[in-house]
Each structure stands twice: as C-alpha cells, then as structure tokens.
Amino acid sequence: MSKIVSAIASLAILAACGQSAPPAQPADGSDATAPASEAAGQVLNVYSARHYDSDKVLYAKFEEETGIKVNVRESGAPELLETMKAEGADSPADVIIVSDAGALYRFQLEGFTQAVKSDVLEAAIPAQLREADGHWFGLAKRARVIVYDPQLLPAEEVDTYADLAEDRLKGELCVRSSTNIYNLSLLSEMIGRNGSEAAEAWAKGVASNFARPPEGGDTAQIEAVAAGQCAAAIVNHYYWLRLATGTTEERLTAAKTSVSFPDQDTTGTHINVTGAAVSSTSKSPELAVQFIEFLTTPEGQALLTSETKEFPVVAGAAAPEGIDLLPAFKQSDYPLTELGAKQAEAQAIFDRAGWN
Ligand code: FE
After folding, report:
1. What separation in Å is there between the alpha carbon of 244 and the centre of ligand 1?
2. What pTM did the predictor assign?
3. Residue 236 CA to ligand 1 centre (angstroms)
4. How far is the CA of 21 from the centre of ligand 1 (A)?
5. What separation in Å is there between the alpha carbon of 219 and the centre of ligand 1?
6. Whole-angstrom Cα distance, residue 236 to residue 272?
7. Number of domains into which the chain is organized
8. How far is residue 275's CA from residue 313's CA, in Å, rounded to a whole number?
9. CATH number of the domain to which 107 belongs
10. CA of 38 to the centre of ligand 1 (A)
11. Which member of 43, 95, 148, 210 lies 3.0 to 4.6 Å from 232 by CB, making a disulfide possible if both were Cys?
C-alpha cells in the first residue's frame, strides 16, 4: 500500500510542478492501482487442466479472502506442458494443477516444478499422495474401479483386476485407449507390485477380452456397459458417480450398472490424485504455496470435489454429495510418486499387448 500511496503522491507533486506526468491509467484502462499491486506480486497465475464451474468459485473465494488476484489458463495437461516448454523460463505460471500423478511427474521431469516446504501441506496430505521433496501435492483422490452389468456378471467375477484377464470374460470388456494416463498409472502400479512379466501377462489377458477396440473416455465405457455392448469396463469412480447423481437419463444409465472396488481382500483398489505443483518459473512461490494450502482447507477441499465427485484427501473434509452411493473401500497404499517413472514401460507393455 505504501508504494501506491507514494506513487500517487509523486504524481501529485509532478502535476503541481507543472511537469508532464506519466499516464495515470494503464493503456488498457484498468484500475491505476493494479500495476502497483502486480509489482508487489499479488497476482497468481494458475495453469489448470481442470474445467469446472466450481473451480471458478474456488478462485473467487481465494481472491476474496486474500486480496490476491488469480489468473487462470485452462487447457489439457499435454497442452499446458507444451505451453510451458514454449514459454521456458519466462513462463508466468505460478501453480500447475493437473490430474494423475503420472501427469504431475511429466511436469516434474521437464523441470517445471520446484520443491517447496510447507508444514501445513505435510500435515494435511498423507505422504502417499504427495512428492517427497514437495514437487507436487495430491489434493483430490480418485479410485480406478470396475463398472459392470450385474445381470451378466456376479460380483465375485469382477472383484479383482486379475479377473479382467480371465478367459471367461472373452469379448466382454470395454476400455479406453492405453495412451490415457489413467491406464498407464494403473499398469505402472502393477509393474511396481507384481513385476513386468506379470503386468504384461495381465495386459495381454485383458486385451484378449476386448468387446471392441479401445475408444472413448471413461463415461463412454459406462454407457457401453449400460447399453449391453460389454459386461464390464475400467473407469475412475467419479465418472460413475456423476452419472448416478446427474440428469434422469444419466441416473438411468448408472442404475443399469454396478461398481466394484477391486482387490479388497488383498492390496486394495488403485487410487490416484488431482494435484498441484509450484512452477519452477514462479516469481512468487510463497503465494503459490499459500494458494495450495487454501486447497486443503475445509472450504477448498469441498470446492475441489463437490462437482468432480473426487474424494477429499484431507481427513475430516466433507465428501461430495452422492458419495454414499459408493461403499467404503480399502485403497492401495502404493506411493503415487512411483507411478510416473514406470509410464514408459507401461506404454511399451500395452503396445506389445495390442491394447492401443
Ligand atoms: Fe478424469
């Protein structure tokens, strides 16, 4: 504030002396105080791969509570990564928000994240869900589940990921492309837990059970099960939950299917996160951390998950509406930081398995 006051004071002096004053308004006609406030670093640039109205509310709440202006660039994670590569060290990004630990890893690998230390984040977020040195932090959780037609399959035939590779499911499975990060991360955990050979045998078994070549997103897989095109599919839980809490038509689609959380008797269901990182190019890393900390408050957690139907990561945070349609489940304790480094091998395995 003192900078603004002294700027105004010097303008007044210049005017009083009859000297030509510099323009009082920026060329774009915005508030004259804005550049001073920006110079003070009170602007945060968020690069986000999310695209939800609830996020706009989230940014507005943060602005309201802190006075820090939030500029948002929304795009897919691969596009954001390409943008940052083009911008290089000059990238204005302060915070990067993308889904899947595998995607967060890609930003880290390219040098676009920085290690930050925050006692708040370390206390709020389980170690499994964040990068050990603070390169990224999981903020909302998702489970990769099996959606199936209970008229065609008994629950016990789809209660493990291994079931999906069994011969009895020949011609019964719908999946999305292996290039999708969700499937790469799922297979990465299998590589880490069971070894490359077992992971490849599984991928080949699943590929030999396809009802159709991989196509469409997760929602399309659920719709295909509901339409009788396949008996089971692999999807993230929130796609089902959105349908189950959606329009009448969407609810009817979800009602034709059941959800299985695999591996409840053993390692637990594969989970992943939407997470945030402080950009290595940020000129205001402390503001970036402040923003990420805000995302772990009860308000931040609720806004992050209310529309997406992900699970909060902070213990005690309110779960999104409709969550009671899903059972409590055992989640895998596999560290998410391990997933990214296995992506390339996972993709090679999928390619050999014919899972395109
Ligand atoms: Fe998704």
Report:
1. 16
2. 0.87
3. 7
4. 53
5. 9
6. 9
7. 2
8. 10
9. 3.40.190.10
10. 34
11. 148
